[in-house]
Amino acid sequence: MTKSHHPENPPRPNPGDRPQNAFTLMYCGTCGGERESALLSALSRAVGRSAHGVLARATCLFGGRCGAARESNADGPVVLVQRCHRVTREPRGHVVTIGPVRTTPEVNGLIRWLETSELTVNELPLPLRRAHYERVASRN
Predict the structure, then answer these.
(1) What's the CA gap between 108 and 11, in Å, rounded?
(2) What confidence tens digit (pLDDT) does each residue in 17-54 have?
(3) Which terminus, N or C, of the chain has the lesser number of Cβ atoms within 10 Å?
(4) CA–CA separation, 3 and 5 (whole Å)
């Protein structure tokens, strides 16, 4: 994201139309640099609008090279999302690794995905799937 641009609030869907997902969202608070505050602000608003979302900050999720990126132009904040049970908070499904999240459109795509989808990788905007696929490939 450029210094002068902050993520816009994507249009809010009608609350009756969106899934009421329970999820835990963890973001990297180490590798975001100047992008971190805008990302955190957007994520905080989205989680605040959700009925069952939790937001947590962690040190680098991938040992200082967020997004499991090997090349320097791919560095940027990474977000992990896992659906969970609304009451017990027990995990439901796999962790989705998202990012790197570097631009305003990517932040807006992430927010729309959180607010309007069933939180599956296939529903995630394509540019944000990179870290997920790299993480999966590294385990093979």
Answers:
(1) 9
(2) 445 789 999 987 766 566 667 888 899 999 999 888 99
(3) C
(4) 6
CA geometry: angle 31, 123, 102, nearest 5 deg = 25
Supply the pTM of this predicted model.
Answer: 0.74
Q: Is the Cβ–Cβ distance between 96 and 135 less than 8 Å? A: no
Nearest to 98 by CA among 71, 64, 70, 136: 136
Owner of token pair 């139309």: 17
CA 136 to chain centre: 17
Question: Taking phi first (over 0 means left), then psi (-120 to 50 degrees means alpha), and beta for anything else, what does residue 99 get?
Answer: left
8 A C-beta contact, residue 86 and residue 52: yes
